[in-house]
Amino acid sequence: MHTIFVTFPLFFALVACSETTLYEQKPTDDTATVDTASGSDDTGSSSFPGDTATKDTGSPAPNVGPWAFVSAGHDQTCGLQRSGEVLCWGGDANGEASAPPGTYDWVNASMYVSCAASSGDLICWGKDDKGQATAPPGSYQTAEAFIGFACGLTTSGAVNCWGDSNWFGQTDSPSGTFVDLDSSHYTSCAIDTSGQAQCWGYDYAGILQPPNVTLSRVEMWGYVACGMKTDASIACWGDTLYDSGNPLGGAFVDFGVGWQHGCGIRTDGSIDCWASPGSSTLDAPSGTDWVQISAGAYHSCAVDSAGDAVCWGENTHGQIDVP
To answer: Residue 79: its pLDDT value, please?
Structure first.
């Protein structure tokens, strides 16, 4: 789950509720399917293949191609064109790939919801059963929607969360000033102006206890969170038994975290990904001219210096078929 500014000419039986889940079974079609926990844990032995939204950061691509950047979500992908128009493709069961017309500064594809802003004014579309796609007024630099809730970072650095699903405190916004934000199933994390991560929501596998290191940004999916350190390496916390929580060493200029996988752009412009052997999310494109990358649930996308976008990974809903 990330967002970037571009200037254009311009979510155990803890709650007796059928909607409450700690795992989400990977859907086999465009219908969002949420399963209750069956006693298995999230240590790799669970029968649930897992899942999860994403946020996209990094520097925008130069204005020399059709894409400024792309954002990989759950079953959908959204891209921001040079003109400022947003185009989404892939799964659209909840309307998450039906981007409204207009020109925008950024777009973020999440879990069954996508959000964008024009001059800071936020608009979200897709699944709105708990009000997660009903964007509040204000000027936003990023927003991330997951299971029944959403959080956004205003242009003044304040965190604002909304939605009717607050089972674990996921809409209890922290106070302070922040520079980055991401959300996942029932948890969110934000980086404050001192570079420290603050996390709130459901504390599974220690995801609410980030390391005491200085970070510049944060990426989340499932019950793993990762941040970029001052030396440009990646530190992860939470359920790190999953592959997404065990990033490759070395420096990156941009990175994304999806379900059981992650990808990043090296300082030489090449892409490295980490996941279970044989995963299609490892099939990253070659080359050394990549400038922006995003990881979704089961796929990732990147933009090169010419503004061309490529996606790879699972393609169950056409989410990697860049128009």
So the answer is: 97
